[in-house]
Design goal:
The structure holds two protein chains of two kinds.
Chain A (H helix, E strand, L loop, with lengths): L1 E12 L2 E12 L3 E6 L5 H9 L4 E7 L2 E2 L5 H7 L1 E4 L11 H8 L6 H14 L1 H5 L10 H14 L4 E5 L7 H18 L2 E5 L3 H5 L4 E6 L2 E7 H6 L1 H7 L3
Parallel strand pairs in A: 3-8, 3-9, 6-7, 7-8
Antiparallel strand pairs in A: 1-2, 1-4, 4-5, 9-10
Helix pairs in contact in A: 3-6, 6-7
Chain B lengths: L1 H31 L6 H17 L4 H22 L9 H23 L14 E4 L2 E4 H23 L1 H11 L1 H6 L4 H27 L7 H14 L4 H22 L1 H4 L1 H13 L14
Antiparallel strand pairs in B: 1-2
Helix pairs in contact in B: 1-5, 1-6, 1-8, 1-9, 1-10, 2-3, 2-4, 2-8, 3-8, 5-6, 6-8, 9-10, 9-12, 10-12
Classes of the chains: A alpha/beta, B mainly alpha.
Chain lengths: 236, 290
């Protein structure tokens, strides 16, 4: 079953066309990567889905056309966007951040259980539970951003550059935890990542964007085997 | 000793009015991240509403409650149809818009209700009681108690409720809040509405002693801003304590030194805090990472 289907999606920032026609699909419980150079339209693709940039084309989630919907409505349907730069709620404590993530849920017990799950997934956060978001390290903020998304109990997570600005070992930790999350929760994921090696630890298939258009789509194994992919995104 | 206690309690009462306005400013700031300079003007408008309701024969307490309700709706509408247009842009622009709004409201009040001093009845009986040898007006005590109650409610709202948490989340990062499914626009309207309602209470408390004029809140706004800075933007309790401090200090200075120095007290406090403790007495430092 296809959970998310993008067909020839276009997007503009003012007069500048950033997406010229992006098509991709994410199966239920699947994980799809979006690779590409800076400015290829990776982040914009995610923003088109979550409703933070105006888009053309077709964006269908769970059989429903969501193109042009408000971000909070998109979130309510079960799409959690973990934005580039993490979007931590700086003045709120870690626990409060997690509670905000669960804003649309009413099952108190389930929320408490999921907070425990998040703290188990990211033990660093457990020690910082009373700290303000602004007092966290970059890695902890990234973990908190993912955890806040988990708290919404989404069906699809949009993950934007989770490794950005993190030390390699921290980035690896974050991806390991996300991998575990994927296995245990079955949340489908659409993953934007500069570091293709990290992305391939998580995704089954990936699509490569170039100037706002798909140029290549394949399974992780296929893509890893291609010379041009290796040269452009895998460091030789 | 009697005079001293009297001065302190009257100071607390005056401080309570600054506190009500300051709390409204904090509420908007917590919910939207900006300072609303029109908060005083909106409070005056609310007092005029209450005044008109009284003219139409509505009992005082009901007239005040009605003016709070009308102010809530008006505050929400101002957010939706005026401030919404400026929220995406430079925050400084939005602040200037609120200054414009203050001028507009003051003008409108003068136009509709005239610039003459109007008599506004007091919510509390004009009687005095004797406390430890001091003659204290019931109005002073009542005003102070009302503010204590509101302060506790606000603190509970921000810290203990889902709505308060949501308001804070929207203020810090509207986009992240939306990604978690928070209806950002509606929450901003609620924040402005609550603040306007709170302002209406301040208006109803100050109008009896000052008499109702379009500029009634101008001085109170300056004191309220000083209290907000002194108390710390993120702490309702801190803000109320600061407002009381300013009210009492102002009263004591006015009596023991000279009434001429009274006006300067808030400004001196303001300056000292900005110099030595810019995050306020009970406020938290907003950490910004580059």
């Amino acid at each position: 079953m296809t959970l998310l289907e993008l067909t020839e999606v276009t997007a503009f920032y003012g007069p500048v066309q950033v997406l010229e026609g992006v098509s991709l699909s994410v199966p239920d419980e699947g994980a799809v990567g979006i690779l590409g150079a800076n400015g290829a339209g990776k982040t914009t693709t995610l923003r088109a889905i979550s409703g933070t940039v105006r888009a053309g084309g077709k964006i269908v989630f769970d059989g429903k056309d969501i193109r042009g919907m408000r971000p909070d409505k998109v979130a309510a349907l079960g799409i959690a966007h973990v934005p580039e730069g993490r979007g931590t709620l700086a003045g709120l404590t870690v626990r409060e951040n997690l509670k905000v993530g669960a804003y649309l849920r009413k099952d108190r017990k389930g929320i408490d259980a999921d907070i425990e799950y998040c703290l188990d997934l990211f033990p660093n956060l457990k020690e910082r539970i009373k700290s303000h978001g602004s007092a966290l390290s970059g890695g902890e903020q990234q973990m908190l951003a993912v955890a806040r998304a988990v708290m919404a109990k989404p069906r699809l997570m949009l993950l934007d550059e989770a490794s950005l600005g993190l030390a390699p070992s921290t980035a690896k930790n974050v991806y390991q935890a996300i991998g575990r999350l994927r296995k245990e929760s079955g949340i489908a994921m659409l993953v934007v990542e500069q570091n293709a090696n990290l992305a391939f630890t998580l995704v089954d298939t990936a699509t490569v964007l170039e100037t706002g258009r798909n140029v290549l789509t394949g399974t992780s194994a296929e893509l890893k085997g291609m010379d041009e992919i290796r040269r452009a995104y895998l460091g030789g | 000793m009697g005079t001293f206690i009297q001065l302190v309690i009257d100071g607390l009462s005056a401080g309570s009015i600054y506190a009500a306005l300051a709390l409204a400013i904090v509420l908007v700031n917590q919910a939207t991240g900006l300072i609303n300079f029109a908060q005083g003007g909106m409070a005056v408008l609310a007092a005029y509403f209450a005044y008109s309701f009284i003219q139409w024969g509505v009992p005082l307490i009901l007239a005040i409650l009605l003016s709070i309700l009308v102010s809530f709706v008006l505050g929400a509408l101002i957010e939706r149809f005026l401030m919404r247009r400026f929220e995406q842009g430079d925050p400084d622009t939005a602040v200037v818009v609120t200054i414009g709004l203050l001028t507009l409201i003051t003008g409108l009040c003068g136009w509709i209700w005239s610039f003459n001093n109007l008599q506004f009845p007091s919510l509390f009986p004009v009687q005095n009681v004797n406390i430890l040898g001091a003659v204290v007006s019931i109005r002073s005590i009542g005003t102070t108690l009302v503010i204590v109650g509101i302060m506790i409610l606000l603190q509970l709202l921000f810290i203990g409720t889902k709505l308060g948490l949501a308001l804070r989340a929207v203020a810090v990062n509207p986009q992240s809040a939306a990604f978690s499914g928070l209806p950002v626009g509606r929450l901003l309207m609620v924040g402005w509405g609550l603040a306007a309602g709170l302002g209406a209470i301040a208006g109803a408390l100050i109008a009896p002693s000052q008499t109702l004029t379009p500029g009634m809140m101008d001085a109170a706004l300056v004191y309220a801003l000083a209290a907000v800075i002194l108390g710390g933007m993120s702490s309702p309790i801190g803000v109320v304590l600061a407002a009381w401090m300013i009210g009492v200090l102002e009263n004591l200075v006015g009596y023991y030194l000279s009434p001429a120095y009274k006006e300067g007290v808030a400004l001196v406090v303001f300056l000292l805090v900005i110099l030595f403790r810019p995050e306020g007495l009970l406020g938290r430092t907003e950490e910004r990472k580059v």
